[in-house]
Amino acid sequence: MTLAELARLIVGRAETSQGRFLTALAGPPASGKSTVAEDLRDAVLALGQKCEVVPMDGFHLDNSILSARGLLPRKGAPETFDAAGFATMIDRLKQGGEVIIPTFDRSRDIAIAGARAVPSDCKILIVEGNYLLFDDPAWHRLAPLWDFSIFLNVAEPVLEARLIQRWLDHGLATDAARARAEGNDLPNARRILAARLAADIDL
Questions:
Q1: Which residue of 71, 130, 145, 184 pairs with 66 in a disulfide if CB–CB is 3.0 to 4.6 A?
Q2: Domain count of the fold of the chain
Q3: Residue ranges of the alpha helices (H) in the chain?
C-alpha cells in the first residue's frame, strides 16, 4: 500500500468517526517512523484534512533521573520513558480540544514541557513512537486508544545497518558506532519485534 492510498484510507475512516482520529505509527529504532509520519501527514493534508504528527519522544525521562536509576546507557529502552504520562496525554488528545504537549530537543538531549500546542480543530493525528504497539504492562493500555495502527516491519539486518550508520553520521568511528548500536539500539529493536501487538497495517 502506498502512502497516498494509506492517507485516503485514514481520511475515509476519520470522516465517519466521532471526535479525533488517532493513528499509531510504531516500529523499532531506525525503521523510518519520523520520515513516514511526516510523509503520511503531508499526504493527508493534500486531501484537505488537518493533520499533525505527535511523537512520543517528549516523554523521555530526564538524564538526571536515568543516571540515578542506572539507566542512562539504556536511554531509549521502554523503562526510560514516562509511559503513564504519555498515556495520559493520549487520553487527553482522544477527548478533543487543545492539548499542550512536550517536545524533545535532540541537540540538548532533553524533553521540554509545554512546548507545543495541538489545536482543537485538528481531527487527524499521527502518533509515532517505538512502543505504541508494545505488549508490556506499562504500554499495552495504549492499544485500545488507537483508531488505526501501522507497524513498520523492517528486517533486523536492515535496522542494524541503519543504526550503525546513524552513529557514524554523528561522528563516531566504525567500532564505536557498532558498539553503540549493539549495546542499546539493537536490544531495544529486538524487544519491540519480540513483543509487538498486531497492527491494522504492516508496512
A1: 71
A2: 1
A3: 3-15, 33-46, 63-68, 83-95, 156-169, 174-180, 186-194
